[in-house]
UniProtKB/TrEMBL annotation:
Keywords for the protein's UniProt record, in alphabetical order: Signal
Molecular function terms from GO: porin activity
Gene Ontology cellular component list: membrane
Signal sequence annotation: 1-30
One of the Pfam families matching this protein, by short name: OprB
Protein name in the entry: Carbohydrate-selective porin, OprB family
GO biological process: carbohydrate transport
Coiled-coil regions listed in the entry: none
Presence of keyword Transcription: no
Protein family according to the UniProt entry: Belongs to the OprB family.
Protein source organism: Pigmentiphaga humi
Length: 448
């Protein structure tokens, strides 16, 4: 807790000065690149995920329980990104998205929810919306050149190894922060929310995973530092955003260092975050319920609070085709989940193998495990019948939520991948009275 209080002070007092210092350091003139760069590009993707949950032990159920019966779920998303280069070092991107789907138990009953795409869905009818609209400005500072691959949200070309990058507008916090290369994209990699990022990283986002804000990065050959501020939703896990970014916000700072171990490259990242919003305190809700009777209710005690947390991640190459990764994170656990999921402590790790190891260069296989935990205050709130954004069995026989996931992604054609996936979840919703939950998935992903 002492470390978390130190992080709280650093983020609260240091974030504005850090951003100002970095902006003041920008060069007056960017270097003139000699290499050709992509001036315009259109990229798109579509992803369909079908999941089947087997029946499980469920002696009782509350309003936010994962149902005990067998059930099916699906999600479909389609995204288009249009990118254009405005001037030297500057590119603008506009992204549209459509989504539809059906969830397990209205997206309740788990800390590690089973499909990272389901947050974007709003029912069985296709919903269309703007997903992204942002400007990225890169100032080159020398140090040699490296290639930038043409892809979603980035134009192909070349950039200096030493550079400053400013990204501003409407995008996802995870587009910039905690970029573990083999465990961050549910469209192509692991599907469970516990593997998208740090489990306790309650990063600012609307209900679809996007927000407005600004991120500033200094990137050198072998290390990087990033800082960003983003809008919070007006209400916990809501869609409308609170535009008062000077009052309610999500701040984060990340340090990244590349290294070599056993002759292979690796990357270490350390992330600290601080959120400011009107949030309910678990202790306040329990105290009010004890005084007035009934179940505790976070909505009755919401006021200005800050949530802080830390996360460490590492990824390491073990061979040309093998990568391992691990994450560990903790938030203070005093207040309700505001924009991500109900995990206060989390560790995860896994291995991903490129199909080149068996002559299938476009294929990928992965295996990962995660252990999620709640703070003491969060447990007490749920045990007394309180409801969270995703949890609420009416009572709680607490146990850590343990998740194992494995997948095989088969490249069926140049732009088409088909994935088989299986997940096993012990103590779903942190309740030893329930489960285990077993979920089997099929995913079809196309991209151009």
């Amino acid at each position: 807790m002492k470390r978390i209080r130190v992080v709280d002070a650093l983020l609260r007092k240091g974030m504005p000065s850090l951003l100002a210092a970095c902006l003041a350091w920008l060069p007056a003139h960017a270097q003139t690149p000699e290499d050709p760069v992509e001036s315009f590009a259109v990229h798109g993707q579509s992803t369909y995920v079908w999941q089947r949950k087997a029946s499980m032990r469920s002696p009782y159920e509350g309003p936010n329980s994962l149902g005990g019966g067998s059930a099916s779920s699906y999600s479909f998303t389609a995204t288009v990104d249009v990118g254009a280069r405005l001037w030297e070092g500057a590119e603008v991107h506009l992204g549209g998205e459509g989504a539809r789907g059906a969830t397990f138990s209205d997206l309740h009953g788990l800390g590690g929810l089973t499909n990272g795409e389901l947050a974007k869905t709003a029912g069985s009818d296709m919903t269309y919306y703007r997903a992204k609209a942002f400007l990225r400005q890169t100032w080159g500072l020398g140090g040699g050149r490296e290639a930038v691959e043409s892809d979603m949200d980035q134009l192909g070309g070349f950039t200096d190894k030493r550079r400053i990058v400013l990204t501003a507008g409407n995008f996802s916090v995870l587009d910039v922060f905690d970029g573990v290369s083999v465990s961050h994209d549910p469209r192509t990699q692991f599907m469970n929310w516990a593997f998208l990022t740090h489990g306790s990283y309650d990063y600012a986002a609307d209900a679809r995973g996007y927000t407005w804000g600004v991120a500033l990065e200094y990137i050198d050959d072998g290390w990087a530092v990033r800082a960003g501020r983003f809008m919070q939703p007006k209400e916990s896990n809501g869609l409308p955003l609170d535009t008062r970014i000077g009052r309610h916000y999500g701040d984060q700072v990340e340090l990244e260092k590349s290294y070599t171990a056993w002759g292979r490259p690796g990357t270490l990242r350390v992330l600290a975050f601080r959120n400011k919003a009107r949030m309910g305190s678990f202790d306040d809700a329990v105290a009010l319920a004890a005084a007035q009777g009934g179940a505790p209710d976070l909505a009755a005690v919401r006021r200005e609070h800050a949530k802080v947390g830390l996360g460490v991640s590492v990824e390491q190459k073990l061979g040309d085709a093998v990568t391992v990764f691990a994450r560990a994170s903790a938030a203070d656990g005093k207040t309700e989940t505001y924009a991500f999921t109900e995990i206060d402590r989390g560790v995860s790790g896994g291995i991903v193998v490129d199909g080149a190891a068996w002559g299938r260069a476009g294929d990928t296989a992965g295996l990962a495990v995660a252990v999620n935990a709640l703070s003491a205050a969060h447990r007490q709130y749920l045990a007394r019948g309180g409801l969270g954004a995703f949890l609420g069995d009416g009572r709680l026989d607490y146990g850590t939520e343990r998740i194992a996931e494995t997948y095989y992604s088969w490249q069926a054609a140049r732009f088409l991948w088909v994935t088989a996936d299986a997940q096993y979840i012990r103590n779903p919703g942190y309740n030893r009275d329930r489960g285990p939950a077993k979920v089997f998935s099929m995913r079809v992903h196309a991209a151009f």
